Amino acid sequence: MMGMKTLTMKLALALAPLAALAALVPTAQARVLLERGIGAYGSAAPGVLQCVPYARNVTGIRIYGDAHTWWGQAAGKYARGHEPRVGAVMAIRPHGNSRLGHVAAVSRIVDERTVLLRHANWSSPGQIENDVRAVDVSPNNDWSEVRIWFGPGKQLGARHWPLYGFIYNDGQKDGMGTTYMPGRGKLKAMHTKDLIGEIIAGRMR
Q: Is the pLDDT of residue 91 over 70?
């Protein structure tokens, strides 16, 4: 019995460096699962659907990483601007209890100061909300601040959320004076499997 224990310990010690090395090499699926996109709820609990993979799935904008990095990552790949369009991603800056920002998809333009959004992990952990209101409350009517529908209160939330702007996937000229064609095809080839995207698609059937 003692000999078996000794052999097992030696084997574990021999394999430990390989296990440590493997842990340092992220896979595409692991990168998706580790993404965080904290919204108003302010939690990135393990196993909870985050805003980032949901926004990516419904818009086709293939950006990965925390929500607050999307605006910078989009430069040179997707058009960006400061007016809402259907299918665009609204990129919300970190603010208050949202340390990592938030991203949401524009589903409808109601009027010049009101849009409807599709997003996840805002009103409660992992919850998907479709066609909920967001209103431009910026002093200059430039979509630099918004109020967003908060489910538990059944009304717009009181907080004014600062925006980076909108990320487009249509190849049109952006508000920065440059025209970019969508980078979806190239990026999609780099990420051939989106585990959370598949889970979302399953939920929506």
A: yes
Contact 181, 198 (CB under 8 A): no
Q: Closest Cα to residue 41, out of 117, 114, 108, 102?
A: 102
pTM of the model: 0.66
Per-residue pLDDT of 68-79, as tens digits, reads: 999 999 999 999
Quick check: is 177 in a domain? yes
The amino acid sitting at 83 is E
- Residue 126 CB-half CA count within 13 A: 9
Which domain, by its residues, includes 85?
40-204
Structure-block tokens of residue 54: 């949901």
> Contact, 52 vs 105, CB < 8 A?
no
Evaluate whether residue 134 is within a structural domain. Answer: yes
Residue 157 makes CB contacts below 8 A (sequence gap 6+) with 40, 147, 148, 149, 150
Query: Does the residue 196 lie in any domain?
Result: yes
**Residue 172 resides in a domain:** yes
